[in-house]
Write a structure and sequence with these properties.
globular, single chain, mainly alpha, 60% helix, four-stranded mixed beta sheet, Zincin-like, 2% strand
């Protein structure tokens, strides 16, 4: 199953989850209706509701009562639906909200702690190798077990979180295996499903919370003898019933959550082996969980509702088999390492406030890759750039590591804080013409923070020395720090980016790509744009946008009109029965609008769009730097992560 199939499957799983949720709500509605009938009967109100004359007669029980049904429907919809929407809205801030809710501390990019530095390095390598934005990293300092999670709505707002035990007890290979597992959840569309699961379960749980509140209110409320009787009995029974209904709903909700989660964990384990081609890494991490007294337990009060998001089982319950969100550790290990003899070594726990030690080597020193066995047989480098979409492998990880290592130290340090990261982006935009460059430095001096123009000047040469192929990796490294800007700082930064691009009164292809990669991602975080919803389930209505996209791509790297026409036709041929007609002369602004519409296409049809883009750019048989940058910028705008295109790798 490739990236597009995973995305489509994630959408279908969400639809199935909505159906199950609807069934749970219907069951809750029926139970609430019966509860109201029973409470009214016991309280002596059923007769008056039916007769409407207020006469005091012997209460009778009737199974159907339209008024009670209307009350049950309204109350259930309001409570369950409102509770679900409230929780989903609470988590709409993205992965950082969830990480903070779990007690996470954001790791500073410029940290001197060796274990934290190693963790950041592994995450950076995985992100650049997979073509996704480098996510912020959080550490749960008080958690001594070995665990990790990925959280967010989309890859652009994802975060990676690890426990202190995970950061300090695992070797680099083991840590890499765990992080690869979490990146598979990012790439496969699991994160949004996880947030919806939290919201749905919270909506059902609200019934129990309201029932508990009602019972406490009735039990402890002061009242006279005359106030006791039917009314109090009705309220007390109703409150007890809500507690029971909420508990039953939560039982089945957690059962659904566990069933959805367990299968995805097996898939993520397999993906981690494929990504690293090192089954010993993730298998070693799972074995250390078995050998550690704290295991993978997470003590945060918020852990139960987020238990399905973790690498290992974060909580325990009396219904271990039914509610287990993860398969048993021995089963997971044997799927990865069939020759495992079942033995594990005891692992000494870390102190609650460790000194930042790693269990062995730090920095970027790799331990090498083990011989591939078991699940790793599925691993192989993609033979084309298109085949590597939404995945990564050892070659891409090694490529990312070497690319980062070759960057000058001042450039790497600048990417670690918001001030320096702004200077990095500005330095990428400085024109080769000295006159225009001076005008750009003047703009930064007049409109940017004090000293930012000097910082930008100091980074121009290191960036140019890194080479054009490193530019997108540099952008990736700067993005996490840029996400730490305040709203006001971001608006000033954004205005300066646009001013620097406009300094020569034209926009180059690289400038357009940088805008899409940087501002496109940050605009959503800072509320300037909203995440795209799927609106198109076929490409037929998007002929003008597809024509504009392929026309723009065909002009890149093609020096004459016949070559451009061949490139355009090569791309159009990948669209099947969608007839595009002739090329158009659209501008980059037209391309912006076209890409924005195409981003609303369903995942399985995005595959055809990406195939058409790749075929257009590859029509001349080679992948130039301009072409690969544009391919990635368009792909990211469509929500499709594209790993770096390795030398010698064809696009299609």
């Amino acid at each position: 199953m490739d990236f597009f199939e995973h995305q489509d499957a994630a959408r279908k799983r969400t639809a199935q989850l909505i159906v199950l949720f609807a069934l749970a709500v219907v069951g809750t509605l029926i139970a609430t209706y019966l509860l109201l009938l029973g409470a009214l009967y016991l309280g002596g109100f059923s007769q008056s509701l039916q007769a409407g004359d207020g006469a005091h007669t012997q209460p009778t029980f009737a199974l159907w009562n339209p008024l009670v049904m209307a009350i049950a429907v309204g109350a259930t919809g309001l409570i369950v639906g409102g509770g679900t929407l409230y929780k989903i809205n609470e988590l709409s801030g993205g992965g950082e909200v969830i990480a903070s809710h779990l007690g996470g501390r954001r790791v500073a990019r410029g940290t001197s702690d060796l274990a934290e530095r190693r963790l950041l390095n592994v995450v950076e390598e995985m992100a650049i190798a997979s073509g996704t934005p480098v996510p912020p990293v959080f550490v749960l300092d008080e958690e001594l077990g070995i665990n990790a999670f990925a959280a967010g709505k989309e890859p652009g707002d994802a975060v990676i979180g690890v426990t202190r035990g995970c950061m300090e007890l695992l070797s680099r290979d083991e840590l890499q295996g765990v992080i690869a597992h979490e990146f598979s959840h990012i790439l496969n569309g699991d994160m949004k499903l996880n947030i919806r699961l939290i919201g749905i379960l919270h909506g059902i749980l609200v019934l129990s919370l309201i029932g508990q509140f009602i019972m406490r209110s009735v039990w402890y409320a002061p009242r006279s003898r005359s106030e006791k009787g039917n009314a109090a009995l009705f309220i007390l029974v109703f409150g007890m019933g809500l507690v029971v209904i909420g508990a039953i709903g939560s039982f089945f909700g957690n059962w659904i959550k566990a069933g959805v989660s367990r299968q995805r964990e097996y898939l993520a384990d397999a993906a981690a082996v494929q990504f690293t081609r090192n089954p010993g890494g993730i298998a070693g991490a799972l074995k250390k969980i078995l050998g550690l007294s704290a295991g993978s337990k997470v003590n945060s009060p918020a852990a139960p509702e987020a238990s399905h998001m973790f690498f290992g089982r974060a909580t325990t319950s009396g219904f271990a088999g039914i509610f287990a969100t993860h398969p048993p550790l021995p089963k997971r290990i044997r799927r990865i390492d069939p020759q495992w003899d079942g033995k594990v070594e005891k692992v000494e726990p870390v102190s609650r406030r460790g000194a930042g030690r790693a269990s062995d080597e730090s920095g970027r020193q790799a331990e090498g890759f083990a011989v591939v066995t078991g699940l790793a047989g599925a691993a192989a480098s993609a033979t084309t750039a298109l085949g590597s979409v939404g995945t990564l492998d050892r070659d891409h990880v090694e490529h990312a590591r070497h690319m980062i290592d070759r960057l000058a130290e001042p450039l790497q340090r600048a990417c670690d804080d918001p001030f320096g990261a702004q200077a990095v982006i500005f330095a990428l935009l400085i024109d080769a013409d000295p006159v225009i460059a001076e005008a750009q430095f003047d703009l930064i001096a007049r409109h940017g923070p004090k000293g930012l123009d000097r910082a930008t000047r100091g980074l121009v040469d290191p960036i140019r020395n890194a080479g054009r192929r490193a530019h997108l990796a540099i952008v990736d490294l700067a993005l996490p720090a840029l996400r730490e800007l305040s709203a006001g700082q971001y608006e000033a930064f954004r205005s300066l980016v646009e001013a620097l691009i406009a300094a020569d009164r034209k926009i180059s292809l690289f400038e357009w790509c940088l805008q899409r990669l940087v501002l496109g991602l940050l605009d959503e975080q800072f509320g300037r744009t909203k995440s795209m919803r799927t609106e198109y389930y076929a490409l037929g209505r998007l002929q003008p946008q597809l024509c504009t996209l392929l026309s723009a791509l065909s002009r890149v790297g093609q020096s004459d009109e016949p070559s451009r026409q061949r490139a355009f036709r090569a791309g159009a041929s990948r669209l099947g029965d969608v007839a595009l007609g002739e090329m158009n002369a659209g501008s980059l602004s037209d391309l912006d609008r076209a890409v924005a519409e195409l981003a609303r296409v369903a995942p399985k049809h995005k595959r055809r769009v990406i195939e058409a883009c790749a075929a257009t750019l590859a029509a001349d048989g080679e992948a130039k730097v301009d072409e690969t940058e544009l391919f990635r910028a368009v792909a990211q705008a469509l929500g499709v992560p594209v790993p770096p295109i390795l030398p010698g790798t064809p696009l299609v």
